[in-house]
Design a protein that fits this description.
The protein is mostly beta strands and 1008 residues long. The protein has a domain at 240-257 and 315-331 and 341-623. 9% of the residues lie in helices and 52% in strands. The protein contains eight helices and 53 strands. The strands form nine sheets. The protein has a 22-stranded antiparallel β-barrel. The chain has a six-stranded mixed β-sheet with strand order 18-19-22-23-28-29.
């Protein structure tokens, strides 16, 4: 049985209106423009003039030119002027490039995958330098960077030796303008208004219905009498918009709140058919938090629960309404100075600060509890254990969160190029990049005192609940277990410093035209502060009634608190585009529908008011806790890299054809140092000579671990001009992708043997527990590309390529020895941790690009990528897991019940298509982007499987050039309100649905 029905998608009213307006606009303006074209042709017969190609046509011509002229496999976008990249963000712009797709958050493109491979396999460079991020991984959140301040973006799918290592899937390169190279003065301002139809239904306490983004930039050049020249480019942007999002949610698999509970009618000790009411993962007589047991039974060699039916049950199912705000300030500055013809000095600076805020209102149904004779017999599941119908009794909560994320990016670089001779060019580069992120969150809870009877059924997209004799809109029903938590977490700082020197020497040779080489040193640091909750600190208050109050008085005080902070439900038509009607139906004991409590809303309150009131009931003022560096939860990683390369470029004639390309080798050495903290300890000797380990939690001591590796990365690129319009292309390179910085931490505690009377430290301390592995080796791959490309004219391309990637590496638990100094002596102790294995897997794919334009002004551009892989990623809880012992033997720990995932971020199909009409002063385009399902790891626990379902998103844009200085624009993202749907552990077990709605922008650009 399928979890979701396949039904025609229904457009919401706004989407239908936008679609109709767009089609009508294109149709009506087409006739006008064709008439204008005829008039232009008549004028041209009398006075020949140069046609300045702009807009969508110019952008696609530039894409074709970038691809044709490169010696590597590359696709890119460039703009004639700053601000002309055809997208609202870098993420949306990158999605239009063949083989690129995004992970969506808050309705917009964030992390980018290349050729269906996850962002951890890619690298991002800004002006040729590494970019930092605040996520703890090596991906980059592209929504942090405004497209209006970027001149060019490109994706290099094969690499040469001169490129900074780190991209197995590819390298994403962003470039800002070099003002002297730009060559003309430009003053430009742009203002765009933002309206999100779904925001119009929200009474948002953080933002108004309308938003905006304003951009201003200035480029100029100055020549001096001594022959020197100075160029300046400066730009700034302010964005203040909303990111509406309505959600259905289940407990996530990152911790211990989502279980495969046994669904066996013959088993009355645990699961849904237990003999007494209780949580389905607990045994009536036996262990708690068990569920389906995947551990290997030594007597059978299979899982303890092998053969038992099960169903996936989270701690809760819930709905979330969001009030949102997204503010971003961005700035860039570039200076280019040429004192004479021998020197070219470029400096650039980028800054971006983004503050995201959400006021979240949740209605939560706790639902792990199994009721004998009810829950089990009525349970309906699909063929993977996803629940389709559930009945039972449990508490209901009206909860809320107040969330903010403050993230700042800074980048600075200076590049000095010296033309020492006609043949020799020297280049020196210094760079700095830093990202800081901090998250603050209030988490509130108010629940029913008694367990309520309810059931739910899976609809086309989300579940729908039926409650009996309970009104979810009455706030006086939620007065029990009032609690608030204040969290300061994910406070991170990622910093990269680098220096490099390069040379290029032109050869007087009929084959080899030049040789290049260089050295580079960099230092990456990643610090995540710890606290009372590992990656953060938490302060918690529970409601404390007046001392001496009776039970009735305590209830009255709790209800008064709730009523004092109550607000109207902030949103109308909540989740209407993905629901089958009312998400909640209130019935009486006879099954008759009760109007109050039936609908798509519930009792809500102001989160800040609630938090202050609960804290005040304890005599406290609400405040966020502090973090500390010297804490067991702190991660402090330093990664130092030293690299050198040598590369030859060739351009000659072979077999009667012109060929060009390069070959070279890059050598990379990486050293990792990781600092951690643990409680101080002391070895105490007893009266009989036995030893004990005593920890002192008042004293924290520093510990340090590390590792190093050296890799050799050869590369070869070949391009043949088979004819004037046909190119043959090939590339081979060895690539590497390093482990995420957050996985390179160093947390260690000692294991002791309490069943013996140890008299030596070797007997006392038998092993080590911990997380993080600074010795993790990179994922290595050999990459092969071949392609044929046909360029009939400057508006057209037909390209087809095949690629193959062989990975040497996977992730597996392995026991290794690490050295520890204890009481002045060094001991080698075993620890089991995640390591990169020597397993081999491969990816094979095809990629095709098509662009064509008719004389009528209509053009198309399509990009498609297909990939297949045998790479397997096992879930750490419900997959097959193994451990490699010190002697090299491998033992299976668990027998999984879910198939393995693929390469993180891997999509089998990625497609982007664009139809544009651009002639004269009118420019319109309709864009479609599709990505098939993929496994997306969590940042907090990347060992659990989470699948993002397939999705297709429509965008539209149109602009009209009023005169030489003024252009008006309209743009729409997620035109038809495509939601994001996620499955947990296995595809078919629905975990989360996010409904964003379309986002509409309209504005005007002024240039001088």
């Amino acid at each position: 049985m399928s979890l979701k029905k396949s039904t025609p998608f229904t457009l919401n009213p706004t989407a239908r209106w936008v679609k109709a307006a767009f089609i009508a606009g294109v149709a009506s303006t087409a006739a006008f423009s064709l008439q204008a074209q005829e008039a232009q042709e008549e004028a041209a017969a009398e006075d020949v003039e140069v046609i300045d190609v702009v807009g969508s046509r110019r952008t696609i011509q530039d894409q074709i030119s970038i691809k044709r002229e490169s010696t590597t496999v590359v696709d890119g976008l460039s703009a004639e002027d700053i601000g002309d990249l055809p997208a609202l963000s870098i993420g949306e712009a990158l999605e239009s490039i063949t083989g690129a797709a995004s992970h969506r958050e808050n309705g917009g493109a964030t992390e980018i995958t290349i050729r269906g491979l996850g962002p951890f396999l890619s690298a991002t460079h800004i002006n040729g330098r590494e970019a930092t991020n605040g996520s703890g991984d090596r991906s980059v959140n592209f929504s942090q960077f405004p497209s209006e301040l970027v001149k060019k973006i490109a994706i290099y799918k094969t690499q040469d030796a001169s490129m900074i290592e780190g991209g197995v899937a590819g390298v994403i390169a962003l470039e800002t303008v070099a003002p002297l190279d730009y060559g003309k003065q430009r003053i430009q301002g742009e203002i765009k208004g933002n309206y999100n139809p779904d925001e119009g239904n929200v009474d948002n306490s953080l933002h108004s219905d309308l938003g905006y983004r304003g951009t201003i930039s200035y480029v100029d050049q100055f020549e001096f009498s001594n022959g020197s020249a100075l160029g300046i480019s400066v730009g700034a942007q302010r964005q203040d918009i909303t990111q509406p999002e309505a959600e259905y949610r289940s407990s996530s698999p990152t911790g211990s709140s989502l279980w495969a509970c046994l669904n066996d009618p013959t088993n009355t000790n645990e699961g849904f058919f237990r003999s007494s009411a209780g949580d389905c993962e607990d045994q009536v007589s036996g262990s708690s938090n068990q569920g389906y047991n995947t551990e290997i039974d030594p007597e059978t060699g299979e899982a303890v629960s092998a053969g038992s039916p099960y169903a996936w049950t989270g701690s809760s199912r819930s709905y979330r309404q969001n009030e949102t705000s997204d503010e971003r300030d961005a700035f860039f500055l570039a200076l280019q100075f040429q004192p004479n013809s021998a020197w070219d000095i470029n400096t650039d600076f980028q800054y971006s600060n983004r503050l995201q805020q959400e006021a979240r209102h949740d209605l939560i149904f706790l639902q792990k509890r199994a009721i004998p004779g009810l829950t089990g017999p009525t349970l309906v599941t699909n063929d993977v254990g996803g629940i389709l119908h559930w009945e039972g009794q449990d508490r209901i909560e009206s909860s809320g969160e107040q969330f903010s994320r403050d993230e700042t990016y800074q980048g600075f670089g200076i590049n000095v190029e010296h033309f020492a001779t006609d043949a020799l060019t020297l280049s020196f580069d210094l760079a700095y990049s830093k990202t800081e992120r901090e998250e603050l969150q209030i988490s509130n809870r108010a629940r029913t005192e008694d367990r309520q009877s309810f059931s739910w059924d899976m609809g086309d997209n989300i579940p729908h609940f039926t409650v009996q004799n309970f009104d979810v809109t009455d706030i006086t029903n939620f007065y029990d277990s009032l609690r608030t938590r204040a969290d300061r977490e994910n406070t991170r700082e990622n910093e990269v410093k680098s220096a490099k020197v390069d040379f290029s020497y032109i050869l007087d040779h009929n084959v080899f035209v030049s040789v290049e080489g260089g050295l580079r040193a960099s230092e990456m640091t990643f610090v995540q502060l710890g606290g009372s909750q590992g990656n953060g600190s938490r302060t918690e208050w529970t409601f404390s009634p007046t001392e001496g109050s009776t039970d009735e008085e305590e209830i009255a005080q709790a209800i008064a608190l709730m009523q004092g902070c109550q607000i109207d439900f902030p949103e109308s038509d909540f989740l209407s585009s993905v629901s089958d009607g009312d998400i909640i139906t209130h019935v009486d004991s006879d099954g008759n529908t009760v109007a109050s409590g039936t609908g798509s809303s519930w009792a809500t309150y102001d989160n800040n008011c609630f938090a202050r009131a609960v804290a005040a009931s304890n005599g406290d003022d609400f405040a966020y806790p502090e973090l500390e560096y010297e804490n067991a939860g702190t991660i402090d990683v330093t990664e130092r890299t030293y690299a050198g390369y040598l590369m030859a470029n060739y351009d000659t004639e072979m077999w009667g054809k012109f060929v060009r390309g390069n070959f070279g080798v890059r050598v990379v050495n990486t050293e990792v140092t990781s600092i951690g903290f643990r409680n101080s300890f002391e070895v105490i000797e007893g009266e009989l000579g036995t030893l004990t380990l005593v920890e002192d939690d008042s004293v924290v001591e520093r510990i340090e671990g590390g590792g190093s590796y050296t890799e050799i990365l050869p590369s070869f690129n070949f391009v043949m001009d088979y004819s004037d319009d046909i190119l043959l292309r090939a590339g081979i390179y060895r690539g590497m992708s390093r482990a995420n910085p957050s996985d390179l931490g160093y947390s260690r505690t000692f294991q002791t043997d309490d069943e013996v009377a140890p008299t030596t430290i070797s007997d006392l301390i038998v092993g080590v527990n911990g997380s993080g592995n600074p010795s993790t080796k990179p994922l290595m791959s050999w990459n092969y590309d071949v392609a044929i490309e046909w360029y009939p004219n400057e508006d057209s391309i037909f390209a087809f390529g095949v690629y193959y990637k062989q990975f040497n590496g996977g992730f597996q638990q392995q026991t290794v020895l690490e050295d520890f100094v204890i009481e002045g002596d060094t001991y080698a102790l075993p620890i089991t941790n995640s390591v990169t294995t020597d397993d081999s897997s491969s990816i094979i794919g095809i990629e095709t690009s098509v662009a064509y334009r008719w004389d009528s002004g209509i053009g198309v551009k399509f990009g498609y990528n297909y990939a297949d892989t045998d790479y397997e990623f096992e879930d750490s809880l419900y997959g097959d897991t193994f451990v490699t012992e010190l002697d090299g033997s491998t033992t299976q720990l668990t027998q999984g019940i879910v198939p393995p995932g693929s390469v993180p971020g891997f999509s089998e199909h990625v497609f982007s298509g664009q139809v544009y009409y651009q002639i004269g002063d009118l420019d319109t385009a309709l864009i479609y982007k599709y990505r098939s399902e993929y496994f997306q790891p969590y940042t907090s626990n990347g060992t659990r499987l989470r699948y993002v379902d397939e999705v297709g998103v429509w965008e539209a844009r149109a602009s009209y050039k009023v005169n030489d200085h003024v252009r008006v624009k309209v743009e729409a993202i997620n035109l038809f309100s495509a939601p994001k749907s996620q499955d947990y552990f296995v595809q078919g077990n629905l975990g989360e649905v996010n409904d964003y709605g379309p986002r509409l922008f309209a504005g005007v650009t002024v240039k001088y």
